[in-house]
């Protein structure tokens, strides 16, 4: 199977054996590199999925924060637009009491 060297002492055979061993080691290293590369691809794809999930979550959080801004603005407008109500005391005198505007929920079927 292997070509034998014609030189005395068989020194050609040992160099061929050494070369074959080096090639086998190189093949083994390439196979390990291929396996490590495949594992890296799997990990990067899993990371991509997690990042997409995080991006979707960040968008949802942004929408919630935007809604809270609108709610707080509505509460602020309602509390600054106070109305005066005349309240009669027990002595018959009228006293003005400041109350906030009533907030009303309106269904929005969009």
UniProtKB/TrEMBL annotation:
<dbReference type="GO" id="GO:0008608">
    <property type="term" value="P:attachment of spindle microtubules to kinetochore"/>
</dbReference>
<dbReference type="Pfam" id="PF08654">
    <property type="entry name" value="DASH_Dad2"/>
</dbReference>
<dbReference type="GO" id="GO:0051301">
    <property type="term" value="P:cell division"/>
</dbReference>
<keyword id="KW-0206">Cytoskeleton</keyword>
<keyword id="KW-0963">Cytoplasm</keyword>
<keyword id="KW-0175">Coiled coil</keyword>
<dbReference type="InterPro" id="IPR013963">
    <property type="entry name" value="DASH_Dad2"/>
</dbReference>
<dbReference type="GO" id="GO:0005874">
    <property type="term" value="C:microtubule"/>
</dbReference>
<keyword id="KW-0498">Mitosis</keyword>
<dbReference type="GO" id="GO:0042729">
    <property type="term" value="C:DASH complex"/>
</dbReference>
<protein>
    <recommendedName>
        <fullName>DASH complex subunit DAD2</fullName>
    </recommendedName>
</protein>
<keyword id="KW-0158">Chromosome</keyword>
<keyword id="KW-0137">Centromere</keyword>
<keyword id="KW-0995">Kinetochore</keyword>
<comment type="similarity">
    <text>Belongs to the DASH complex DAD2 family.</text>
</comment>
<dbReference type="GO" id="GO:0000278">
    <property type="term" value="P:mitotic cell cycle"/>
</dbReference>
<dbReference type="GO" id="GO:1990023">
    <property type="term" value="C:mitotic spindle midzone"/>
</dbReference>
<keyword id="KW-0131">Cell cycle</keyword>
<feature type="coiled-coil region">
    <location>
        <begin position="13"/>
        <end position="50"/>
    </location>
</feature>
<keyword id="KW-0539">Nucleus</keyword>
<keyword id="KW-0493">Microtubule</keyword>
<dbReference type="GO" id="GO:0044732">
    <property type="term" value="C:mitotic spindle pole body"/>
</dbReference>
<keyword id="KW-0132">Cell division</keyword>
<keyword id="KW-0159">Chromosome partition</keyword>
């Amino acid at each position: 199977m292997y070509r034998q060297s014609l030189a005395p002492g068989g020194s050609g055979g040992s160099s061929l054996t050494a070369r074959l061993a080096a090639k086998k080691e190189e093949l083994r290293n390439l196979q390990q590199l291929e396996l490590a590369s495949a594992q890296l691809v799997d990990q990067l794809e899993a990371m991509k999925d997690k990042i997409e999930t995080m991006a979707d979550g960040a968008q949802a959080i942004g929408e919630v924060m935007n809604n809270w801004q609108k709610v707080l603005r509505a509460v602020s407008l309602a509390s600054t637009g106070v109305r005066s109500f005349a309240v009669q005391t027990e002595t018959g005198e009228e006293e003005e009491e400041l109350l906030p505007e009533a907030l009303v929920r309106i269904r929005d079927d969009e």
